[in-house]
From TrEMBL, chain A:
SUPFAM superfamilies: 2Fe-2S ferredoxin-like, CO dehydrogenase ISP C-domain like. Pfam families: Fer2, Fer2_2. Pathway: Alkaloid degradation; nicotine degradation. It comes from Thermosyntropha lipolytica DSM 11003. Coiled coil: none annotated. Residues 2-78 form the 2Fe-2S ferredoxin-type domain. InterPro entries: 2Fe-2S-bd, 2Fe-2S-bd_dom_sf, 2Fe-2S_ferredoxin-like_sf, 2Fe-2S_ferredoxin-type, 2Fe2S_fd_BS, Beta-grasp_dom_sf, Diverse_Oxidoreductases. One of its GO terms (molecular function) is oxidoreductase activity. This is Purine hydroxylase delta subunit apoprotein. Keywords: 2Fe-2S, Iron, Iron-sulfur, Metal-binding, Oxidoreductase.
UniProtKB/TrEMBL annotation, chain B:
This is Purine hydroxylase beta subunit apoprotein. Gene3D superfamilies: Aldehyde oxidase/xanthine dehydrogenase, molybdopterin binding domain (3.30.365.10). Residues 2-263 form the Aldehyde oxidase/xanthine dehydrogenase second molybdopterin binding domain. Pfam families: MoCoBD_2. PANTHER family: XANTHINE DEHYDROGENASE (PTHR11908), XANTHINE DEHYDROGENASE SUBUNIT D-RELATED (PTHR11908:SF157). It comes from Thermosyntropha lipolytica DSM 11003. One of its GO terms (molecular function) is iron ion binding.
Amino acid sequence: MKKISLTVNGKLYQVEVEEDMRLLDLLRDKLGFTGVKEGCSEGECGACSVIMDGKLVTSCLIMAFQAEGKEIITIEGLQKEDGTLHPIQQAFLEEGAVQCGFCTPAMVLAAKALLDKNPHPTDEEIKEGISGNLCRCTGYAKIVSSVKKAAEYLNKGGK
Amino acid sequence: MKKRGKGIACIFYGTGYGNGFPDVSRAYAELQPDGKVAIYTGATEVGQGAKTALSQIPAEVLGLTVDDIIFINEDTSITPDAGTAAATRQTYNTGNAIKMAAEELKKELINIAVKELGLNSDAGLEMKDGKIYLKILPDKCITLAQIAAKQSEPLRTFATFTAQTVQIDPETGQGAPYWPYTFSACAVEVEVDTETGQVEIIKAAHAQDVGRAINPKMIEGQMEGGFAMAMGYVLYEDLGLENGRIWNNKLSTYIIPTAMDMPEIQNIIVEDPESTAPYGAKGIGEPVMIPVGPAILNAIYDAVGVRMTEIPVTPMKLLQAIREKEKQGA
Ligand code: FES
Ligand code: FES
């Protein structure tokens, strides 16, 4: 057992973790952030993605103790306290970019990681930005157009 | 060398269980105390948009908004059986059952309104925005919430829809095994790299007959998803099944398309209302995928002149076929 402290969605947590625990399990099972999904468990599908210190990472490939002192954002951290959706979430909703929804939390985070760095991405850059996240339902077109729309919302100063 | 080719394919697809198999959907419509209407049905949402489309249908019948429909599904302890979310059947079958239950409820509500408003007949009564009113004298009006308050138990209607399918003649293979059918067509342009055997889809157009588009955006989503799935099926996805063992049992070896693989797709929604369908709408879940594969294979043929008869068309298989053809030509 190891004691670590980390910030998730702006809140500080101090937790005991086993040495062999993955960040994915810490977030889902110990801290209850079930918006983090487990798909392949081997870094291929991206469903478990979270933002760690500004970078999109696959939480199935990171050990929990490696999150010591890190700042993590999961999908639960995106919507405002009053329940207003984040502009990216809003755009996904409006564009119909969600079908079964399994890829969606991580897709939204992938979009956020991209837009935080590149507020005016081209279609190609968007496709590249979400290419580590597999979606079996949508064929990605509506996801790409959502990210475009979200970029417009964010550039107008949030919605 | 890079060679381009174009291919098209079209298909028809019988939706529902078919072949005389009983294909039944059931639904309740129930007036709520606040004037909203709850729909109870066993139809399952798996991401195809059943909840949305099947809420839009009763909203249309009852003159309500989708927000006024409380859609309760999947809970088998309180919903009637509506069959599986399979065979592209929920929009048509369950859509019909829900439409019938909602129409039945509307009839009852109108009858109550006639009595409550002291009218001679239901002629000219309109139902809209949670109210029933007389068109020629809108002050003669009662809200659905007012009607609900007058009931000792919730007003509830039930409907069953059974699709018409006939078993085919086992000897001649003739008959009408499905109803309705839906039609799709797809055209693609590919670029084949004759050095590597790689196939890239440059552009695609995808047309789907939907009867009537209840939710165009969701239809496009299904079409794009079906295209991606077919593209993976035809070009990348190989289970590697050998003696009952699946070799490619991980996403690191079983390759499915990413956003980067997707070409630009032009969606064409063809509306030709089906007379037995709810507002003419037919299901499209499975058919959207079907013409894509043959269209790609035809485009490959057009590009390099080889007929691929086994999928996925991996670079290795395609190279082999191209080499063989060259040998024959030499
Ligand atoms: S579960 Fe982590 S990448 Fe698939
Ligand atoms: S919406 Fe189903 S996997 Fe993306």
